[in-house]
Write a structure and sequence with these properties.
heterodimer, A: mainly alpha, 7 helices, elongated, B: mainly alpha, 8 helices, 0% strand
Amino acid sequence: MNLRPMKMGLVSRIERKFMFYLVSIGLIIVLLFIDSKKTIKGIKKGFKKITINAPMFINMIILVSISLYFFSDELILRYLGDSNVFQSILIALGVGSVTFMPGFVVFPLAGLLLEKGVSYPVLAAFTTSMMMVGVITFQIEKKYFGVKLTLIRNLMGLIMAIIVTGVIGIVLGGII
Amino acid sequence: MIKKYGLMVLFIIFLLIAKPMNLKASTEIFDNFKSFSITMLKFVPMIFILIGIFEVWIDQATIEKHLGENSKAIAYLWAIVLAGTTVGGLYVALPVSKSIFDKGAKLSIVFTYLGAAAVARIPMTLFEMSFLGITFTLIRLFVSIPLIIFSSILIEKFYKRNNIQMRA
């Protein structure tokens, strides 16, 4: 059973892919006219960055693909739909922090969970920790900013996710 | 070497072994892998080329003036606007943020950008609104953006006091 309603069709996917590339290529052509030497140097630099970073990105894609399999929609619904809100919030924070889902997967899933009766604060905990805390992406982030800063940034993210969850719970109801 | 390519090799071996057995796990993981790879290919290679061009074109002085140590408070607004228009996600925002950091932007601005890129990307926000409602999204933004700015300043203070070494 596949609960994810909004998997984008292949056509729209290709369209969107080309959109970004077309705009970028247009920009690059304009820059080439203004200063071809500088622009070509930049493009070369960009290609070098791609080759350096590719293994890291591929590793992340692999980890994400595996984690998406283990955290299936049904499993998430079972644990987040629990009548104990605080327990559900804690689980939501945990799952949201550990997994990494692209936005076009998270929000349709959250919408679906809402329909199934999962409360707003639980969804807030799930989506905000998903956005702000990345255990899987830790490997990648530490390459850019070092272990210590990455750790601090992610911890702050978790605290912020908790605060957002609290405010949502107070305004939209669902806590208590 | 093993750290870099070990996972890839294991993954390929897993797929090669599991494929003929037609395991549910392998097909599902491979489908995830395929669709997420396509998502990444949509932006990431081009982003790196644009970053390369950005690094050659924009000189350090410009970034330092607008986003550096002596920049004004409006720099935070620029960081958030830039974040809102970021496509893709963290995997795009990270190299971009590192690039503006290396060009002399101060850490609190860089982390504001990085945090805002996680929570306030426009396409993603529209998506969220349509599934969870506008009130939900507005509360989330109004609570998280000030917190992101605040915590970024805090992290910068901490970073300066302890003089943490950045890995290049």
